[in-house]
# Entry
Amino acid sequence: MKNTIEISEVKSPQTEFKNKFSLREMYRAFVFLPRAMIKMIGNSKSQLVDNDFAKRLQLAVTEVNGCAICSYGHTKMALRQGMSGEEISSFLSGEDHFIKPEEAKAIMFAQHFADSRGFPKKYAYDVVVKEYGEKETLVILSVIQIITVGNMLGIPFSAFQSRLKGKPYKDSSMFFELGTLITSIFLLPIAIIHGLLRGLIGLPNIRLDKSTTEEQNGFHNK
# Structure
């Protein structure tokens, strides 16, 4: 009963998309999924990134992308892991009151990754590598990539679910919702093969924007 009350406190009804992805963007994200999942399987033994840290990264990405069903699911799991409703609400509203200093740059990168629609700046990624080391950074990246795919699928599903309840999103259509979900079923296996082939020839499991902007100094100073 306690969890039900707390979940309702941190989750508010959604009536429109906060973020919306094209099939091309979804395919690109799917390509990175197999190696990200392999990395997370390895992390279950090494625990370079513990479950609480991973959950905060997931909540940070979900807040930017605005996936209603992911917000609910990860809120429920975070409550089970012992996070307070106040802490979860802070992450889902984009606030930084509960961000631990040692996790701040990773959380900021997670938000930047989502803001950049999976095409983060190279300098931002380099900051994370410098802070956490290459091995831990790859796990952090994998957590972010997996939840991003979850959000991409969860966003149209959330809209369709809301439509069935008689509350369709203002900026959506049944064609978009079902079309995206059905097409993704066919894209996913092709993208997985693509991603594994990229790994075999040694290509990195991330696309980086190598351009620089005025935001660079701000990211370094956080």
Residues 134-164 form the longest helix (31 residues).
